[in-house]
C-alpha cells in the first residue's frame, strides 16, 4: 500500500504547524522523519492517522484521495500509529489492551479472550514480538509495553505503521531489540514512518530521510550519504557542535556529602545499599549505570521524594536527610526529574502555571494568599524565550506542547532561579541536537558559576561528555569511579562496570 501526503497544511489558530508538506511512504521501507522539537513531525502524522483534519492538501492511498473523519477511518484504511506516550490501560492484561475497541466475541456476545490470547501469540511469533498475553501492563517494563502497542496496531491489520519518538524511553539495549523488530516489519512488507530527532538512530534504521523544520520539509537524504553535521544543520538551521565545550573544572568545597545511604523498595528490598559520594561546588559528577540499578532511588532520596532508611545526606554542611522537598528547594537545590509528565509538570496547567509550580508561594509572585498573575506571565514568557520553549502563548496548557518542549519547560523552571546544587535526571531526554547543545551549555554554566551539578543519564556519551568525575552504579551500589582530571575516561572500562564486570573498589 502506497501512501502520499500532498501539500498538507495544518493550522491551530494563528500557529501554522505544517505548511505545504509532501511525502511518499512506500511498502517495505522505513521513512525517517527527522526534525527538532516543535518542528511539526507529530502533527503531520496525526493528520495521516486521522486525529487532525488538514486545512489544505490531501492524502492519497494507492493514488486515490481519501478523507479521514477520525482515527477509525485511518485504521480501517490500514494506517496505525504508535504514540510517544503509550495508550494502554495499566490494570488490563496484554490481550485485553490489544483487542480494546475491536473485541472478538463468541456465544451470547461474550468476549472471546482465548481467541484474543491466540492472536497476540500469533502476531508475536510472526514478527518477533513475544509477550505474555495474560501479563498485566503495569507489571511490564517499558520496552515490552511498546511491543504491546505495536501488536495493537498489527491486530487491526495495519500496513503503514507510524512510530512517534519510539526510542525516547528505551535503554540502549532495548533500542537494539526495537530496531530488530522494525527491520522484521519492514522485511514483511510493512511501510514504516520513524519519527525522531536522534541522528545516529535515524541513520542506523531508515532507508530514506526527510527533514522537517518549522513545519516545512527542508530536505531529503539517503542515510548512507548524509553525515550527522549536515543533518543537524538541516534540522535547526545552523551548525551544531556535538562535543561539550567546557574548560577544566575548578572544584571548591563539598556541597553535597552522602554517607551510608540506604533506601528500601516496596516490599523491603534495598534499592540503595550504602551509597557514599561527595560532590564539590564547581564540578559535574555523572552517575552512569544501566537503568534500574538504583539511580532513580538515589535522585529521589537526594531531593526528598523517597524516605531514607539509613545513612545521611548533608548539603553545604547542613543535615537534610529528612528535610522536605520544599525546604530543599528553598535552600537552592534544583531538580530536573527523569519523568517530566509524572514528576515535572501538570499537563492541564498552563505553561505559565508550570513555570512557577515550585515557587508560586514566594514573594516574587505572591503577597499573602494572592498570586500576582501579571508577574507570573511576564516571568514565564521570559523563561520560555530564554530556553526556546516553543508555545503560541504562556496560557497554552503544557500538555499541548511537544515532548521536547515540555522537557525544556521543566529545565527552564529549574535553571532560571538562584541555585547551589543541580540534580538532573535524564536532562536531555526527548530533546533534539540543538536543544541538547543548549542544555549542556546551561549545565556547564551552572558549574562554572559555582554550583555542584549531579547528572544521571542513560546516555553514556552524555555522561562522558559532561562529567568531571563519573561514578558507576550497579545493583544499588557504587562500584567504580573515574576522574576526567586523570585523562580521558575509558569508555570501555565504564561499560564493563555498568555490566557488573571487572569492577573494583570505588574511590
From TrEMBL:
UniProt xrefs under InterPro entries: AAA+_ATPase, ABC_carbohydrate_import_ATPase, ABC_transporter-like_ATP-bd, ABC_transporter-like_CS, P-loop_NTPase
Any one GO MF annotation of this record: ATP hydrolysis activity
Primary site of residence: membrane
- Localization, UniProt: Cell membrane
What top-level branch of life does the organism fall under? Bacteria
Q: Which GO terms describe its cellular component?
A: plasma membrane
Q: Which Pfam families match?
A: ABC_tran
Domain ABC transporter intervals: 3-239, 256-500
Q: Kindly give the membrane topology term recorded for this protein.
A: Peripheral membrane protein
Q: Which UniProt keywords apply?
A: ATP-binding, Cell membrane, Membrane, Nucleotide-binding, Repeat, Sugar transport, Translocase, Transport
Its name, as the record gives it, is ABC transporter ATP-binding protein
Q: Which organism is it from?
A: Halovulum dunhuangense
